[in-house]
UniProtKB/TrEMBL annotation:
Keyword Protein biosynthesis: yes
Keyword DNA repair: no
Recorded family membership: Belongs to the RRF family.
Protein name: Ribosome-recycling factor
Record's keyword terms, sorted: Cytoplasm, Protein biosynthesis
Source organism of this protein record: Butyricicoccus faecihominis
Location relative to the cell: Cytoplasm
NCBIfam families the record matches: frr (TIGR00496)
C-alpha cells in the first residue's frame, strides 16, 4: 500500500514539474530563453530542438539572441520561429537572429493570465485523475481482501491529503505567474 501511495505521489510531482515547465515558457514581457523550448528546427532532415542547434542568450531584458553553431541552419531557425505561436518577428543579420520582445499590451496580458489559469486547472484535473486511479486500486484490493477496510480508509485519507497539498502548490505557481504577468 505504501509503495502505491509513493508511486502516485511521484506521478503528482511529475504533473507539477510539467506545469512548471509550461509556465516558464509563457512569455512575460521579459526575454526568457524558456519561451523557445518548444520550437524545433529542421536540421539535416530531422526535427531538432532549437537549443540543440544554437546558443540562446539574453543581451538585454527585452532581447533574445539566437546564435546557431552551424550557419547553414540560420534560415531554418528563422522560419521555425516565424511559424511558432510566439508572435515575435525574428530579425536575421546573417550571423544570428535577434528577437525583440515588445512590452505586453493590456489585452495580451489578460489573455496570457487566462491561459495560465487554464493550464493550472488542467494540472489539477490531472491530479484528481491520479487520486481517482489510486482510490480505484485501493477499493479493488479491499474487495479482493488484500487490505482491510481501515487500511482502505487510511489510504483514501493519505491520497486526499496529497492531492490537497499538490493543488495548493499549483494554485501558488499559477498565482505567482499571474502576478508576474500583471506587473510587467
Amino acid at each position: 500500500m505504501k509503495e502505491q501511495i509513493k508511486s502516485h505521489e511521484a506521478k503528482m510531482q511529475k504533473t507539477l514539474d510539467v506545469l512548471s515547465k509550461e509556465l516558464a515558457a509563457v512569455r512575460a514581457g521579459r526575454a526568457n530563453p524558456a519561451v523557445l523550448d518548444k520550437i524545433t528546427v529542421e536540421y539535416y532532415g530531422a526535427p531538432t530542438p532549437l537549443n540543440q542547434v544554437a546558443a540562446i542568450s539574453t543581451p538585454d531584458p527585452r532581447t533574445l539572441a539566437v546564435q546557431p553553431w552551424d550557419g547553414s541552419v540560420l534560415k531554418a531557425i528563422e522560419k521555425a520561429i516565424q511559424v511558432s505561436d510566439l508572435g515575435i518577428n525574428p530579425q536575421n543579420d546573417g550571423k544570428q537572429i535577434r528577437l525583440n520582445f515588445p512590452p505586453l499590451t493590456e489585452e495580451r496580458r489578460k489573455e496570457l493570465i487566462k491561459g495560465v489559469s487554464k493550464t493550472g486547472e488542467e494540472a489539477k484535473v490531472a491530479l484528481r485523475n491520479i487520486r481517482r486511479d489510486a482510490l480505484d486500486k485501493f477499493k479493488a484490493a479491499q474487495k479482493k481482501s488484500e487490505i482491510t477496510e481501515d487500511e482502505l480508509h487510511d489510504g483514501e485519507d493519505k491520497m486526499q491529503k496529497l492531492t490537497d497539498k499538490y493543488v495548493k502548490e499549483i494554485d501558488a505557481m499559477v498565482a505567482k505567474k499571474s502576478k508576474e504577468l500583471a506587473e510587467v
